[in-house]
TrEMBL record:
Pfam families: Dimerisation, Methyltransf_2
UniProt GO BP: methylation
Keywords: Methyltransferase, S-adenosyl-L-methionine, Transferase
Protein name in the entry: Methyltransferase
Length: 339
């Protein structure tokens, strides 16, 4: 009699990986159909189908899938948003992440040709995928604004206000500041400090709209340019950069030296960025999210310690680093101090 093989492992994780795309498809379709807008209060599948003009039975099955994904709760036949869905997936709220999640998912297009990419390597650069266009950058800044508002813009003031130098700060720079909400939040946490948002010319127009929205015109300014080539200002006590320095990776020391020179004596440079570890295989959130772009020849992510080492090379007297939990996954915070 032939015996069954001895198996000491479970393939549960493999199966969960297999069905994971179903969860993301449910999420993205819900955003497209504005399902979560219907579920701030408990509603039946029939009522949702009538409001959306969708097929009643398939709407019920779809809502059951959202419940299985913990995006809605189902009780007595009625569906309602979970707190996460209510906070981030209802339109016309300041923390609505629908456009950001949708555009992020669109960057995964490369995975459709994954076997070809693995066999043949990256394709030639495509003008349609030009991330250098001003219009593309401005659109991206507008889309990520709510992500900042819901995430890092809430953490950053806590980080910066914990610095011993914080009370003495008079001027800060948010380098590559995008829509500007992080810089706005940091400045708002200080009684008198003023701030500058530096980014591409099209992006700072987006930042200006948020400066007006938060009534910070008297304390915030903007400066447009390319930080790899253009002046970034001077006499800063604090320079902050978060997920913004990838385009300087090939000549990091030049930008870090420019930052060093722009700081006052005793100034602080704070960088919040990914830091890949375990031979660039962890954190898994970072590695997997970067995979589509990396496979197409755009590997712009930093190893842990890359930026900190650059700080030391250009003259910062001390550098301290720690890892923070963020909504994007673990990220490294490097703090460089100028003598």
């Amino acid at each position: 009699m032939k015996k069954l093989p001895e198996v000491n492992e479970s393939f549960e994780e493999l199966y969960r990986m297999l069905i994971a795309p179903i969860r993301s498809k449910l999420l993205l379709t819900s955003i497209e159909l504005k399902v979560f807008d219907q579920l701030s209060e408990p509603r039946s599948a029939e009522a949702v189908a009538e409001a959306l003009g969708t097929h009643p039975e398939n709407t019920r099955l779809f809502l059951d899938g959202l419940a299985a994904s913990d995006l809605v709760v189902k009780q007595d036949g009625l569906y309602q948003n979970t707190p996460v869905a209510q906070t981030f997936l209802v339109e016309n709220t300041p923390t609505f992440l629908g456009p950001m999640l949708t555009i992020t998912a669109q960057t995964f297009f490369a995975l459709d040709d994954l076997p070809k990419l693995v066999k043949e390597g990256p394709p030639p650069p495509s003008p349609e995928a030009d991330m250098g266009s001003e219009e593309t950058w401005a659109q991206f800044a507008s889309v990520v604004a709510n992500g900042e508002r819901a995430g890092i813009a809430r953490q950053a003031p806590e980080i910066v206000s914990g610095l011993p130098e914080f009370p003495s700060f008079t001027k800060m720079l948010d380098l590559g500041g995008g829509p500007g909400l992080i810089g706005i939040a940091i400045v708002a946490a200080h009684p008198s400090m003023k701030g500058v948002i530096f980014d591409r010319p099209a992006i700072i127009k987006v930042a200006e709209t948020f400066i007006k929205e938060y009534k910070m015109e008297d304390r915030m300014d903007v400066l447009g340019g390319d930080f790899n080539h253009d002046p970034i200002g001077e006499e800063y006590d604090l320079i902050w950069a978060s997920s913004a320095l990838s385009l300087a990776k090939d000549d990091m020391d030049s930008l870090t030296k420019k930052i060093y020179d722009a700081l006052n004596p005793g100034g602080v440079f704070l960088v919040l960025h990914e830091g890949l570890t375990y031979e660039r295989t962890k954190p898994d959130d970072m590695v997997l999210s970067m995979m589509p772009m990396a496979l197409t020849g755009q590997d712009m992510w930093f190893d842990q310690g890359f930026i900190a080492d650059s700080m030391l090379r250009v003259g910062f007297k001390s550098v301290r680093s720690r890892t923070l939990d963020t909504d994007w996954g673990p990220m490294d915070l490097d703090i460089g101090r100028k003598a």
